[in-house]
Structure formats: C-alpha cells, structure tokens
Amino acid sequence: MEPICGGLNVLELGAGSAAAAIAGVVLADAGARVLKIEPPEGDRLRSDNPSGFLVWNRGKESLVADLRTPEGQQTVRDLAAKADVVIEGFAPGTTSAWGIGADDLRALNPALIHCSITGFGKTGPYSALKGYDSLIAAKAGLWARGAFGHREGPIMFPVPWASFGAGMQSAAGILGALLVRESTGRGQALDSTLFAGLDPIDYFVATVVQVMAKRGEKPSGDARAATSASRFGVLLVTRDGRFIQTSTMLPHQGRALCEVAGIAHVLDDPKFKGLPTFANADDAQEWEDLLLEAFRAKDFDHWLPLLQASPDVAFEVAVTSEEGMKHPQIAHNGDVVSVEDPVLGTIRQVGPVGHFEKTPIGPQRSAPALGDNAGPLAVHEFPTGGGAAPKHPFEGVTVVEFGSFYAMPYGTAMLAALGARVIKIEDGNGDPHRNSFGPEVATNKTTAAKESLSLNLRTPEGRAIAQQVIAKADVFVNSFRTGVAERLGLGYEELSALNPRLLYVHAAGYGTDGPYAKRALYAQAAQTVAGSFGRQVGYWVDPAQSEGFSVMELQAVVLPRLNMMVDGDSNAALAVLAALSLGIYHQRRTGTGQFMRTSMIGGNAWAYADDFCTYDGKPATPLCDSEYYGTSALDRVYQAAEGWVCLAVKTDAEFATLVRTFGLPELETDARFATAEARKANNDELETLLAAKFAERPAGEWEKELTAAGVGCVEANLMGQPIFTVFDPVLRETGLTVAFDHPVFGEMVRAAPPVTFSETPGRVAPPCQRGEHNRAILAELGYSEADIAKFEELNAVVPQS
Q1: 20 near 12, Cβ under 8 Å?
Q2: Pfam families recorded for this chain (predicted)?
Q3: Which residues contact 539 (CB under 8 A, 6 or more apart)?
Q4: In angstroms, how far apart are the furthest CA atoms of the chain?
Q5: Which of 56, 345, 506, 633 has its CA at a distance of 20 to 30 angstroms from the CA of residue 775?
Q6: pLDDT (tens digit, 9 = 90+) per residue, 392-412?
Q7: Helix H or strand E encompassing 82
Q8: pLDDT category, 168, cuts 50, 70, 90?
Q9: What single-letter DSSP state applies at residue 509?
Q10: What are the backbone angles phi and psi of residue 644, rounded to the nearest 5°?
Q11: Whole-angstrom Cα distance, residue 195 to residue 174?
Q12: So what's the pLDDT on residue 440?
C-alpha cells in the first residue's frame, strides 16, 4: 500500500526554523518527498542545534539556493510550480520582499498549499518580534513562574515548546488543506504561529482567571492558586537523592500511593477522605509532608519494586532524555528507532508520531548532507476537484471520542477547531476532568466544539447505541487502558467488523500492550519518561545537590527549584493531533480503515526529540544555570531598570547589531567576543557587560529599540500566559484570540483556532455539556422521542442534568 503521503512534493523554507522542520518531518516520515531549501552556509540548525537538525530533518533532501539572490528566488519559483506544499518559517514579509511569498507562488500554482509559520502572525506590533522560542515564551508569559516561585523575575526553561506545537499544528493544517484540495482542486494559504503552538500548555488557568474576574477578584496567573487545596502531582525524594514524580488524579490512586508509602492509616482521618483534593491547603500540605517523610527515609531501591507492584500508582523516575530512551515501554512501543548516518553512524532517535497497522510510517534515511538531493521534482497531476469548498478543513470527518482528562481530548479538540465533528461518549458522571479544578473549568478547552452523548455502556442498549454511532463515523479514538473498551463492546475487532473503513486509534498513556500498558499515567509522569527533569531542571536533580537535606530543607531549597512546566498532556495532545490528521488523510482518500496507536510517552518523546537521541560525538544540549536565567549570555533573561527582558541573539550579524545599538561597537571586534566560539568561552564576561547595559533603561524601551534594530529582545511578561491570552488587546486585534459564549460562564476568551486558512477557516464553538446532544444524535440514528424516553427509563441514555 502506498505511504500515507506518498507522491506529495513538499518544499521547506526557513533557515533555523525548528517549527518548519518539525512540520516537514511529520510529512517526510509519512512518505512525502520533502526538499529542504538551504542557504550556501547551511540551515542554522546544523550549528545551533545539531541533534535537533538530525532528528527534525530525517528523510528529507537538501537543495542549496541563496534566496537573497535572483537565481535562488527563481529556483524556488520553478520548484513551487511542481510542488504540493510549501512550508515557510521566515519572518513576516521576508519572502514577499523576495518575490516568493504565498501570493507569488500560488499565482504560479493554484493547487499549492502554502503554510507560513511566524511568531505572532503577520500583522500588529508583535509581528516584528523575532520568532525564537525563548522570546515567544517570555512575551506570552510562560517564564512568569519566577514571579510566583523561589526568586524574583522570569524563569527560563530551554525547551522549544512553541516550535513543537506550531510544527504539529501546521502538519495537521496542511493535511486538512490537502483534503480540501481533493474536493476543490485548489490550494490555499495557511498561517500558523508559535504563539498558538504554546497555547496547549495552559490547560485550564485561562478559564480560572476569567472566572475570578467575573467574580470581581483579582486574576492570578499562578496555577498553584487554583490547585492549592489539591495534590494531583507530588514529587518525592528518596534517601539517596532520586526524584520520583507521582501523578494522582483519582481517589483510588491516592489510596494506592498511601499504601505503598506505608501511611495507609491516614485514610481513616476524615480530612484525607477526598484525597487528592482536600478541604483546604493546610490539609493538602500535611498529606504531602507525610509522603515526603516516608520516601526520604529509605533508598530508591527499596521504593521502586513497591511502586512497580502497584498499577494504580502513576509514577516515573526523574531521568534525562537519553536515559528515557531506555524505558522498557518506550522500547516495546517502537518509540526509539535506529537510523544509519553516513558520517555519524547509528543514530538512535524518536520513532514515528503514530504506529499505523497498514501504512507504517517512520524515517527511511538520516538527515541530508548540505546539497544532497535526488534531482528535480517529479511532475504529477494535481487533483482536478471541481467541488464546492467545505466550510472548514476537516468538515465531513466524524470522530467518536472515548476518553477523559486532557491528552487525547485536547488533541481532538484542536481537530474540532479545524472543522471535524467530534462526538464525545461519556457516562452519567461525565468525564472526571469536568470537576478536576471546579465545575466545567478544566473542560472549557477539552470539550470545545464537540458534541456530548451520555450513555451507560454497561447496558446492552447503551452499547448498541454507541456501536451505531461509530458504524457511521470515520474515526474512533480510545484513550483508556487496554481492556476497558473491549469489555464494553468497543474493541477494534468488533468495531472494524461493523465499520471496515474505520480508523481506530488507541491513544493510551503507556501504549496498547507491553510491560507498563496496564499502569495509570498522567501528565507529570508522562513527561518525566521523556526527560523533562533533565532538560528543564537538570542542575537540581543531581543527588549531590540535596545530599543530607531534611524534608524541611528539601521543601525550602530544592523543591521550589523543581517547579517545572507541566507539559506531559499538552505534548501528547499535539502528537495525537498530527497522528490523527495523517490517519484521516489516508482514510478519507482511500476509504481504508486500520488500527493506529499512539501513547503519551511517545508524544512527549517527540517534544524532547532534539535530545531524545544518541549517537557518537553528540554534543550536550544547552541547559539553564542553577537559577534558570538562561543557557548563555545571548539566550537569557536580564533585569532592566524596570522589569525584565529576554534576549535571544542567534547570529554574528545580530550580535554586531546588539553591541552597536548598546553603544559598544568595540565589542564586535573584541577578540573575546568576535566569534561564536569566543563568546561561548567568555560567556561570563559577556553576561556581566550585557547585564550592566540592560540595567540602564526600562525593559519596554529595550524591546522597542532592539526589535526595531532587528535584535531579538522582549519585555518578559510576569503576569503569566493565561492573563496574557485572555486580556491582551493586541492578541484580540490581530485575531490570535477570540471571544465565545460559554454555557456556564458567559462570554469568555480563548486562543483562536491553531491554523488560519485563506478559504476554509477553522471554527469557534462553545464547549459541550454532558449529554447535551443526546436527543439530536439519537434522532440522526432514527430514534423517536418515545424511543429516547425508553432508553432513559432503561438508564441506557443518561439525560443532561
């Protein structure tokens, strides 16, 4: 069977764009021919992030064309006339000035899908900001953890979340546009942003701050304010200094953790009866203290067998990304593959974004050497189309969702924002996420634009209704552990017999089968497998840093410095989105059903893919200093006369502009700083010089002046990402956020659909209430009001309360 993206010609433009590279590698893994256009000096990622370059560009070809010259520009025009897709990662206006922007290339080839990825879009004052991950995160408020944490000022985490998110969203958008082209014969222009790529990492706090504002309270961007009376994630430390991340979302999981810790007696205390939620923050802290005291009393080797023996305890051990590659379940799932490189030898790296039964995807070769390609693009006919354009890219696709919490449901919510019909099956209690952080708070994002069908699948009538809905659907997505769906008549064998064209997706925590498949898993533990501790807070997880500390000292010194971003669910959701989009593209074009599996741990490995790899001579991934100011003097936060700035300088030209703007032109030729290698060797001296200059003026002034000069610098937002998303007027004016009517909270604001389309836009719709669409869906199946009443009487259908 032909690969999912077989026959597609893709051009990738944008030296140094991780987001463009990630979007391209998703298509390359699926069989597209991806031709990476590089300048004569090579893509900047080759030197800035060599491991990232290797993974994000596997399976591609390289063609050298200097786009600053007429010859290079003509090369792109000639290629675009034969291409299906162009992915572009340049700053707004760059390619248009060269005569090879979206309008220019689409005029040559009306069937072309052109996807441009920028920092904050192409209009408004934020469009001039450099599209570098640390700058986008600082401006959006992601670094505001410092304002709520162990020290003043922003906290930097050196993970390319914005690029990863935008890359996965762009891949989904491209596949949706390709489906539209099958009907219309026309391509269109797409726009993605790093800002939108960051949105998945805010799970619910944007909703909380709006609810607080409606109550007349002062909104806080500190997520801990909303969770102070709960302990969904407790970080434990053994006597020998090993860190164990637990994730406890449900009461029985909290009880299991107490039993492992040897403190089961506390379950008799009324104040702990609702754990992991409590009546007040003091009770929550008391429970955490008891767990910490217990685990600190004995070594890691004592605790690991006990934890492994209790499948209801969701936990993982803090590791680096390279150590995470050795996880037994990662190996079992095929989430690590070996690729032979002609220069570096064997490179072990992250596997495919989804494991497809009939159309497997994955790398066919290593990243190309500069200029290594197989010659001209093959000419092929584009779809003739002739049909009317749908309203939305994935309109006409029906997805039935069977799962809970965030990782899978937010992946399908992003697909719903791109036009898919998503029907959520939930029981009479509803998705437990509906009450995780207050009634309907957490599900504001995860149920947006969906329909809810509330069934009792323990009744034969409820199971029959679910099967009838799925028999008419294109996709069924199940995120429960293996055995749950099967016991309820929703296993792959049963459903594929009813609907042979069904794409059946199992998007579980650890995977479909294997040594950990029956274990519970949530965000904080899932990201731990991929190496979040090693990457985000590597300095402080070294056992030597906490040797001999009491629990009180750990709580005062170490644990506040391990206040990481919780990205385990958001990373997984983005991988689900990309994998689903690939599967839907294949299913809609061929009518062929198949089984596809993803996992939360695999999705997180993708987010850390630039370090989730090993090969001889691999350079160390840059980490932050012990207080998280930055990875170097030129990728760092600095205190200004008022506020803080985040500086990101990537090239010699940018450094020259920086020191000239500072009135220090002599530093450009100073031997200590004249080259990248020299700047690295004299990093501390450079940091001292820059810190002194930034302290002279307010952060806002530095942002304005340096941005105008072409240097990456922003005023770090210390209010937090949720407040920025909800209240920033520029985001509203430029269409990066939108207003909608929430059925419980009234008018609310959220991020716009993740990709914009010139012809078939995404959609904005409110979240669904449990059982809200029972009657409409049952009527579609041909049931009368009397039938529905009978189903309710039999408790097969649970009415909306």
Answers
A1: yes
A2: CoA_transf_3 (PF02515)
A3: 545, 623, 624, 625, 626
A4: 85
A5: 506
A6: 999 999 999 999 999 999 999
A7: none
A8: very high
A9: S
A10: -130, 150
A11: 18
A12: 86
Domain limits, the chain: 230-321+518-564, 633-718
**Residue 7 vs residue 277, higher pLDDT:** 7
CATH number corresponding to 633-718:
3.30.1540.10
DSSP state of 797: B
Give the N- to C-terminal CA distance of the chain in Å, as an integer: 48
**DSSP three-state, residue 467:** helix
Angle made by CA atoms 140, 142, 143, in degrees to the nearest 5: 115
Written as six digits, the tokens of 592 are 């062929």
Q: What is the pTM of this model?
A: 0.96
- Indicate whether 127 pLDDT > 70: yes
Angstrom distance (rounded) from CA 561 to CA 275 = 25
Is it the case that residue 225 has pLDDT exceeding 70?
no
Q: Are 445 and 480 in contact (CB under 8 A)?
A: no
Pairing mode, strands 635-639 and 644-648: antiparallel
The helix (H) or strand (E) run that includes residue 655 is helix 652-661
SS3 453: strand
Which token pair is 492?
A: 């792959």
Question: CA torsion angle for 657, 658, 662, 664 (degrees, to 10)?
Answer: -70
Task: Dump the DSSP string for 528-593.
Answer: HHTTHHHHHSGGGGSGGGGTT--HHHIIIIIGGGG-----HHHHHHHHHHHHHHHHHHHHHHH---
Give the tokens for residue 556: 């005062």
